[in-house]
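Example 3.
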Amino acid sequence: MKRLAILGSTGSIGQQTLDIVRSFPNKFKVIGLASGRNISLLAKQISEFQPQLAYSALKLSLPDKVKFSSMEEIASYPETDLVVIATSGKIGLTPTLAAIRSSKKIALANKEILAMAGEIIIAEAKRHRAQILPIDSEHSAVWQCLRGEKAEVARLLLTASGGPFYHYSSSQLAKVTADEALQHPTWKMGRKVTIDSATLINKGLEATEAHWLFSIPFDKIEIVIHSQSIVHSLVEFTDGSVKAQLSFPDMHLPIQYALSYPKRLPNSKLPRLDLVQVNSLTFKPVNYANFPCLELALEAGRRGGTYPAVLCAADEIAIELFLAKHTSFPDIARIIARTISLHQGIANPTLDEILAADAWARETALQIVNKGSLCY
Amino acid sequence: MKRLAILGSTGSIGQQTLDIVRSFPNKFKVIGLASGRNISLLAKQISEFQPQLAYSALKLSLPDKVKFSSMEEIASYPETDLVVIATSGKIGLTPTLAAIRSSKKIALANKEILAMAGEIIIAEAKRHRAQILPIDSEHSAVWQCLRGEKAEVARLLLTASGGPFYHYSSSQLAKVTADEALQHPTWKMGRKVTIDSATLINKGLEATEAHWLFSIPFDKIEIVIHSQSIVHSLVEFTDGSVKAQLSFPDMHLPIQYALSYPKRLPNSKLPRLDLVQVNSLTFKPVNYANFPCLELALEAGRRGGTYPAVLCAADEIAIELFLAKHTSFPDIARIIARTISLHQGIANPTLDEILAADAWARETALQIVNKGSLCY
């Protein structure tokens, strides 16, 4: 029986994690749940799974047996074996560190955490022997391909669906609405991640995550457009052999794999892949010119230090402004680029310096828009 | 330093095995070489690799230091670590058993051995702790995908290029010439294997091999047409996750993997896969009606006993007759089907019974053609 804490339980990954728990009531027990503002769903989850600890960003009346606790307390609670980090953006960063410092297993779905603070997270995880198990479909694929392999990796090929606008011209991209950007062709995900998929910035964050998770240098990480989202990523070994992990695009599988690892659990509720029905898997080069967010994210990853944190913070603000219809889709890249250009990077930053860079970038991104100083 | 014996050294797989030895002179040493009738090439190989033992089907003058030995002697020679079985048809069967009984590692490229005598081979390999390492690209792919995995396999998906005639109608198939059948679209292979790829009988033999090598029941083995020959096979686990092995179609890689296992050796001479250049990987259902050899082979595998040996023997005769222009391409299936229909199968046969069934089938197949008793 694995005892779980789920941070971000009302989000897309959190809800799917609870689906897996429901499928295996004898394998997983929920000890802690934490959510943001969706307290009506959290109340239902608490009633169904009866955790010992709960947290929400808004005030919530709890049953007597459930103790209101901070996310850090939930993440480090002694009776927990595995902490699922299903938050989005930087909010999961300090709870993740708390889980690491308590030597928990960590199933990580929050892309920004490793992108922002990969060096610190990996060093702390080594020090505290905390295993980090990726939930992201691409990293789960790489992790599965590396299973049992001791050879050096020659190349990682991260696949990208390309999002809903991959075939758009730059003039079409200028007219994209928030509603259009929220319609992903292959994946059902949360709002922020869906927009990040449309700008392709998510692949740059994932490359940075992969760099930290698997100790792969950036020059060995390539991105390829694979619009069917069936091949979740590929690993090339030094002998030229390539391994790939494939499945129907559904996050339940990588979530279950991280929860059940090193076992695989038979689960008839998970969709089966029918390759003959899929018929064709295509691979195309990335159009970097039309999706400048991707190169911005890769460049921030390569520069390291506080740059990825600034990128992530500016991205969060730019997406909020875009979803609120204050700015255009191409403005997301412009806001990020301008914020980064104003940043004085710090190498080997402390966590406080990363959080300070994050705060600075949020303010700066907002000012850039409010003062109308975006470069067109 | 691994010490190798290579049986079938002048064939396609044998020559490519020696290419790998050439690339790693400090890792592999050739102790024994055996060939059939190509003694001029064998003489060159002996001069280059200086083995201690050699065999050929025809008389051959050997340097003083090289001892003429039977294939069984070479396969069981104490100074050998790994025996590459690169023969074709049933000739490799008794040398393979000799290698197994001497507890050698066996790199197996000869499809018919496991198809004909899988039960005996696997039981003897267990008894003598002889590892069987597949060289066939499909089985190497499955083996690589299973690496580090302990979970049950839900499904094997063996890929088939479909050969040169996959889009032919049955009337077009009736007119196929030997020269056309010897032109494989993606793989460069020996003559027998090339014709076996054109009739698709090879996939039935490979399914039987996979059944024995990986203990997978036939109902969990599926075949899918993948004309690019890039995805060499796929494994689906019980959680629905699918792993695939991909590479440019070139046998050097699976040969090297079997030779270097458990290591992978960096080898810049092996071709790299460029998925963007490949562009599209397609998967289509098998047209069993046009390629009856495939169902014949699967059925023989499922029935077991002496049936696969009869199938293989009739296939060898049918191919010889086809290449000699005595019979047509569709006659290959007819000769095999008629031979099998006349066979009284033996369950759990001994090796002698398998060899007797083989001899019976060769004679019967010839008689069927000579007496003109093929059913049209």
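Chain A has three domains: 2-134, 137-290, 304-376. The longest strand of chain A covers residues 28-35.
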